[in-house]
# Entry
Amino acid sequence: MTVVLCGVGADTGNVRPVPAVDTDGRFEYVPIPEKGATSETATYGSIERRHGDGDGDCVLADLLDGVRPGSDGAWVTDEQAIREQPVHHDPNFEALTYGEHRPGYVAKLRELEAGDVVAFYGGFPGPDSQYKHRYLFGYFTVADSPTLLDPGMSRAEKRALLDDHPENAHAKRLGEHGDLYYHDPEFTERPRPVVVVPGREPGGLLDRARRLSDTRQGPNYYMAEDVAAVLEPASTTERGAHLGGFKPAVRCDLTRETFVEFAEGRDSGNRSR
# Structure
């Protein structure tokens, strides 16, 4: 079976500071800020932190000094504006749904089948380094064949397909914007397909993040050898499996049971977090 690792979540281009992983592997999943019209009601001021410190409301906004929707333009630094900023809740671990437009991701995700796994990693500063090593922080089992939305489809066709995925962030964009952002010529010069992956259990946010990367060459990170021995990435370089810089989608070939044991920290080779 197939596991596709996807690099997601807020990073230096869209939030500051980037929340860190602590010495126990605890972390906060911070979605990126939404860049335009959406029917999403969740904001940085409404999403509760999993690991509050007892100070304030214990919401994600408490962690942030600035957000930058779209990763360009001016930073939003007003405290109330940060609290009211809608998030692009993708992946949504409550609804177990994930959507993507990045071509390299779409190519891998569209081939998934029921019973495969889509897993999520991000760049987090750790307890022993300010470098944003790559950490696995969540996953879900693919429930059914992914839905591919082509720019050539009518808006009615896209709405009909997304009726089955009402909690997906791209469906919420279509609901308010009237079309998918990456299909709208007024939004992008390069319309491209969007894929939506429906999920089921087992899956969700991990209790503790699992560090995937070991070596760092310039801006790029590479999967640790002991991790690669378990995950069996399909593509490697002379330095190992590449995890970005710009975070790639990485296809791995292993059973769901083996992956879940690794993700949940039950494998005998559990490396330091």
Summary: The chain is about 15% helix and 30% strand. The first strand starts at residue 2 and ends at 7.
